[in-house]
Design brief:
single chain, about 190 residues, alpha+beta, Cytidine Deaminase, domain 2, five-stranded mixed sheet, 8 helices, about 50% helix
């Protein structure tokens, strides 16, 4: 019988990387791992790990530089092959209320609708929100479009007495702030 470390090494060799393993779908697990019971256990374990990382965010003050948030974001969207826009809605003190996937795009872009973001915030009675999207290229550097859209969303939010906490870009295991980029440009 193989030791767990031998099994883990074998699985890692077959997937090629931990990132590929964590982002693989059920069909890929079935192709590589074969047995239904094994696939179910692997998928359940992966879901538990993600739930554990997200649980660290519940009922906490959401800060864009929080290491727990960064671990969650890297696990959640860092290695996706298409762009995804998430919003984290918060109360007046910055306490986490809800996470929503607002858009899913193609490999190198996702449309950010200021109207959708603001409508969700209002529906949740949120007072602030954090936007996050990924760059499948693995480069977390905010684009000029990211900066323009962030400025537009921030302007609309301010008019409605909402606060955009920040807009983060996840590329692989790295995260950058659009706000930091904008403040350097201003």
């Amino acid at each position: 019988m193989d030791k767990p470390s031998d099994t883990a090494a074998s699985i890692l060799r077959q997937f090629g990387s931990i990132a590929a393993f964590t982002c693989s779908g059920e069909s890929e697990f079935r192709r590589i791992l074969g047995q239904d019971d094994v696939v179910k256990i692997v998928l359940a374990t992966r879901d538990l790990i993600e739930a554990g990382l997200r649980e660290q965010l519940d009922r906490t003050i959401l800060a864009p530089d929080d290491p727990a948030l960064h671990r969650y974001l890297v696990r959640r969207i860092g290695h996706l092959r298409h762009e995804v826009l998430l919003a984290f809605f918060c109360d007046e003190a910055g306490g986490f209320i809800a996470e929503e996937t607002l858009a899913s795009g193609v490999q190198d872009s996702v449309a950010i609708s200021a109207r959708v973001v603001v409508q969700k915030a209002m529906a949740l009675d949120a007072r602030s929100f954090l936007l996050v999207h990924n760059h499948p290229s693995g480069t977390p550097v905010p684009s000029a479009q990211d900066e323009r859209e962030t400025r537009a969303i921030q302007a609309l939010a301010q008019k409605l007495e909402l606060r955009l906490i920040d807009h983060l870009v996840v590329g692989g295991t790295q995260i950058r702030s659009v706000f930091e980029r904008i403040s350097r440009d201003d």
